[in-house]
Amino acid sequence: MGPWRSRHEGPIGCLRLKVGCVSLIVIDCTIATPPGTRRTPALFCNHTPTLSQLALSFCRHRRLSFVGSDKKRCDGGTGDKTARPQWPEFNNEEKKSAYSVQSLGIIMSTTTTTTTGLVQVSSTPDIRLFYSLDGPLDGSRPIIALSSSLAADTHLWDDFVTAFTPQYTILRYDARFHGQSPLSSTPDFDYAAGHTIEDLASDVVLLLDHLHITKLRAFIGLSIGAAVALVFGTQHPERVEHVLVVGTKAENKESANAGHQARITYGRENGPLALGRQSISRWFSADWITAHPDKVAKLEGIVGTQSIEGFEASIAALRRLDLWKYADEVKKRGHGERFVFVAGEWDTPVVPESRQLAKRAGSRMVVVPESGHIVNVQQPESFYEVVREVIEK
User: Fold this and answer.
1) Would you state the pLDDT for residue 122?
2) Which of these three, 74, 108, 142, is where a domain ends?
3) How many separate domains does the chain show?
């Protein structure tokens, strides 16, 4: 069965929900809204309680209300707490036909395929990037590209992919020498010399060209990935509609270099897991770490497995960081509305500089409440709301 579009009249014959790493689940369901009302559309599920819970998770990410086989309506993140109406019996065709599927502006496909590969971004020296593509490249869905923070890989965005793949094709990649992007095969490669943010932005261009992607709906970068997104969006405005610059400082200060070197030394002496745990303790409060052991365990599995070489090479890029000229160029070209700067409320070193970058670019600044540096992990629902507001307007 091909893609099902919400503008089509009738129920969804089968909808496959991908929840994290769980295999695709087929659920008989329909989306409907009571006639003559302005209530949020609801997903009706005629299935077991376990699968209904998966559907409820799906709905919460998509601002749909949910009605399970017990006909109890659950709020899908809409804040709608008003009295519940009488919903139609799922298997009553006469009643169901009176409820038309609304134009939600989304595409739900019965399958989501994942394609992975390596792309050569430099032959001398040898540098290759790993990428993961969730969804088709046939033009049926807009494409979002994601760029990760320092010492992280594509798995930092797993929950984001689950939330957005029914509507979008998601392109993730591992930055140079991170995750599944291998170390260079060039003998005596100088990781300490590293690379620049501009180099990392050029990598994105080569990746898009490799996949024959001419334009992105959005490029979302986090931390060092945010700097990459800003540079890419400034240098290649024809390749992206919206750029979300999430959690980056504007420049490196000389006083920060000692801290950078101390972390490299700590990683060499104690290994990547210890370095990863140190990063987590900087990104999140002790209370949050205690309250979210499952998320912390996953984060340790991500940041605690990165190569020290990749960390050192990217630190070299951060030492050269200077984004003021790119913000000024965005302003000069009148492109400020295409960029949105985002930071977590508690990310105190970043918020003031991001705010100044946004001001100089003529762009909007959004502060995510009760979040530190890694906003997509600490406050995913709030972050997803920001993303949808930007890319769906």
Assistant:
1) 98
2) 108
3) 2
